[in-house]
Amino acid sequence: MSIPSHPRASILAVSPGFLTTVQDLGRDHCAHWGIPPSGAADPISLRLGNLLVGNPPDAAALEMTLVGGSFRFERQFIIALAGSDLGATLDNEEIPAWQSVRVKPGQTLRCGSTKSGARCYLCVAGGIVVQPVLSSASTYLLAALGGLGGRSLKAGDVLQCGAQRAGPSMKPRAVNKQVLDAFFGKGPIRVTAGPQGDLFSVDSQLTFSTSTYTVKEESDRMGLRLKGPALKRVVDGDIITEGTSLGAIQVPPDGEPIILFVEHPTTGGYPKIANVISADLHRVGQLRPRDEIKFEFVKHEKAISLLKEQEDLLSPQRSLQAISQ
Amino acid sequence: MPSEKLSYPRFQRASDHSLLVTFGEQISRSHHRDVLRLFRLLHSRPNRAIRNIHPAYSSVLISFDPLIARPEKFESYVRRLVDRLGDIEVATSRKIEIPVCYDKTLGLDLEFVAHHNGLTTDDVVRHHTSVEYLVYFIGFSPGFPYMGELPHQLETPRLSTPRVMVPEGSVAIGGSQTGIYPVASPGGWRIIGRTPLKLFSPLRMPPTALEIGDMVRFKPISVLHYQSLLGAVDKL
Description:
heterodimer; A: 2 domains; 24 strands; B: alpha+beta; Gyrase A, domain 2; elongated
């Protein structure tokens, strides 16, 4: 990926929304420098959005959080909104999420407050193009790196886009309803046992897997703080600081769990009772403050087979269907 | 503790996409040598399945793509590497000097650390600059080095409520360890000074000035000297 020498395609951020950042599928191979993966909080929505506009799965897009922004397109584009429903309009006409939409030069997309979920991806054919940092376009807010100068969007920002792969002949398409239902089920968030599961009493493990937890306001891309029955340890104190996995559920001394998310500290000293399975991480990215969740323990074999099923569903043949527009 | 009965090295599936290799339950140079050896060995053999390596005091967490390598296959691969650790030579450490201004306007907790340990602030500086520290690993936030061993006279508990924002360059004490905040971030360690050097810069390769296994000495500098060096990246 590189910045085109004559960037011709651009999008103007008329208003940025609550928190909008450039994200791709994340930044690997940097944890030993203390750098977490970042990337889309809901990578499944990003990938489906990229499929809709004919991009490779890891093309960068705009991740809008809770309240979307408004954007004016300087040329013809194929776009798609994937993720939460922000009640988007194009020149004041409603446009649906989860399908490819053709926009004309000068048109304005306006997104509002979320009606479902926490994050929506604005994917454009050709992808958002920024200078990659450590091989990724993803914004990592804490270290102010990646994306657009390491920060969230502000009004007046101009975003450059790459060349569109799909020509004007690309037929409009949508994501299958059944596929969406499979990805965004309402059931419990599935977890595998954490590396320090045995530091918690049997009662606490039971409490964890049977109680309802509420997502606290002070949750962000670093971690989701949960309110609910406190979890007690068999032994007090912290563990020796060790590496932390994406989706690890750590329990600080107050007993209220925290799900470590895409911008998590790469190491930590709190014991971890469980870890969200890979196939459910994207659902964590759609949790809003005050949402209620439950957890269900599954075996590793089950976690891997769910991930494989999910990967199969992500093939364009299975996830997309042609539509008339 | 349940872990007393365990034998080491210990291999645990920390999640469906990560494997935790633990060499022991205490912070020691000998466990650290194993951590460093495994880290170097993993680095020297590119493996498509590996996504990230998180070395720490006495463990290495490896995250991998379970769709590329089945977890049980990946574990056997890592077990074979661990069996060979004894053959790995660990190269001599780099020695790095880091200038620190221990002025109380920058070292926000300098007086607290002195008072807590029944020392003067000059004593704190003298002790802190008296030894060479091992960078056990870089973790927590970008470029943050976990260093030991802190002279025992300086051990100070962390803040019970972490600061919302610790300024970039802050040199701090957390329990029996010392570290540096290369980027402004929340943090609960006691700040005793600040380095003017930029220890994290994502456009450099590597992006961190310090790396696992380095040996570090702190050198006290004046406020004026601090200001003249601010932002320097190539003074190491």
